[in-house]
Specification:
The protein is of the alpha+beta class. The chain has three domains: about 120 residues, no CATH class; about 170 residues, Sandwich (Jelly Rolls), CATH 2.60.120; about 160 residues, Jelly Rolls. β17 and β18 form a beta hairpin. α2 crosses α5 and α4 runs antiparallel to α5. The longest helix has 21 residues.
Length: about 450
Amino acid sequence: MRLLFALLGLAAGVLCAADTSSSAAVTFNKDVLPILQRNCQSCHRPGQMAPMSFLTYRGARPWAKAMKAAVASRKMPPWSADPQYGHYLNDPSLKQSEIATIAKWADSGAPEGNAKDAPAPVQWAEGWPIHPDIVIDGPVTDVPARPKNNVVEWHTVIVPTGFTKDTWVTAVQIKPEYPAVTHHICAGYIPHNPAVKYGVPVWQDKERDEEGAARPEKGDPFLGGKLAGLPEAEAGAILQAGAPEDCYLPGNAAADYRTINAAKLIPAGSDIAVSLHYTPNGTAVTDHVKIGFTVAKAPPERRYVSFVMSAPTDGQHFAIPPNDPNWQSPPAVATFLQDAELVFMMAHMHFRGKDTRWTLEFPDGTKQVVLNIPRYDFNWQIGYNTSIKVPKGTKLRVDAHFDNSVNNKFNPNANRTVYYGQMTWEEMMSPFFGVVVNSSGDASKIVSSPLLFSNGG
């Protein structure tokens, strides 16, 4: 009996020791800061897209309860992909143990802990995370505080690359000076045209109603409008010249092909067609865009090629009815003309975008959902890095729904029909994707699609 009590006492002591260990204090310096460095500080630091900095205890402490709520609900780090599908190489989602650590820290009063426990600060590359080898001066644009109907038309400007030889670039970053007014900026690479003037913006000057929406009775609300900025022939040549290949978007600051041992070819003498879309916010600014590249030291074995496709843009096929909470868009579809590796996917819709699903249909008839975004968020247009072998003859189909109801808190007006258009209060369904092929292959014959904005790079 004494032996039994002794064993029970020993077991109780072990349990007490375990309980004491599990209830050890969680501190910022020892436990929370490493998580923030790995998963949060890329956005939560001065000059980046997040409104508060988590570099230090002083910066993070006031947000402890909000941090707990955001990670517990998996609102942060932002990541919209359904975990049932796909495997994504850039998934920043926290482990359950990391969520529990942040919650425990917040619940225990958010203690700072010993400064000696803190890891060394991360040396962030301010402004240029890709560390560019070449920086090209891009367009300079005056963005007014409050233009008519709050519209600055989507415009295109041609700038030279200065590349005197074929150049394999391994990363691209488009850097606006004022991200707060930048809806997107994209770059396409085109042969030099001596008749085209550098630095002159051209655009489609559309007739718009009092809310700034293009009028569908004047033709395709997306493509229609009078060419402006240059004589019509020159303006038309510029607007048709450069399909988007690399873009700056909220949540997508740079494209880095080094992570997949690939590069993109920009031929000697190419120009850059820079497509710019600004959304004024009440403060007039002059935005100066720069474009940075890292360059391969030798031609790569793997070539990265960018694509953008679209659902139909005309008002007959794309018209979201008033107060419709779940309108299904016509799909965007592409067919692979050669074997390739699908490495990047990104949905692009506007305020009313609700969900999107990407499906591969293989030549034998089998189907695979490779991306499902059940709750699309326009404010975080995240790119999903993957690695999927796609045989010749495979079809990629992208489906999407839109919420044009009062239940959509971002919806500026639920009582009107919404058409395809360039402004954020109009709509788009334009999936971006990237593939890798053998660098010696024909990049112009990788995919086909009824509405393919880009087929090269």
